[in-house]
Design a protein that fits this description.
The chain is an alpha+beta fold. It has one domain. It contains two helices and six strands, in the order H-E-H-E-E-E-E-E. The longest helix is centred in the N-terminal third of the chain and has 24 residues. It is globular and about 40 Å long. The protein starts with a helix and ends in a 9-residue tail after the last strand.
């Protein structure tokens, strides 16, 4: 594995950790929800979206009795002097439409602060 792949894997693992921590620490997903790791268990729209994600992005999905949650994220440089992770998170519906987006910073102790609300358009990117 070359250096690019190692960095990409490390970056993806970091954002996956951040998404998992966000979900657990905010209580965003019910504890009874089943985590989905296999993209083929999602809608065709979400499966296509997952296939198009770059190496610096990650996703997580859950299902509970037909209700679904999908979060796409990437780490960003907040410009702050702290080393707290800052994540750009996009919350999507089963059709892969962005329904909400924002930049969240993980503060201590295990607190997530909303830094910026973003328009949940097709790209839902920060300026």
């Amino acid at each position: 594995m070359d250096g690019v792949d190692v960095r990409s894997s490390r970056c993806r693992a970091q954002i996956e950790f951040c998404i998992d921590a966000f979900v657990e620490e905010t209580g965003y997903i019910p504890a009874s929800a089943r985590e989905i790791r296999d993209p083929t268990q999602l809608s065709p729209s979400l499966e296509l979206l997952i296939g198009a994600l770059d190496a610096a992005s990650a996703w997580r999905a859950w299902d509970e009795r037909g209700r679904g949650w999908f979060i796409q994220g990437r780490l960003i440089d907040s410009g702050a002097t702290t080393e707290a992770p800052t994540a750009h998170l996009i919350f999507r519906d089963h059709r892969a439409h962005a329904i909400a987006a924002g930049v969240w910073c993980r503060g201590a102790p295990a607190r997530w602060d909303l830094v910026e609300i973003l328009a949940p358009g097709p790209e839902a990117t920060s300026a």
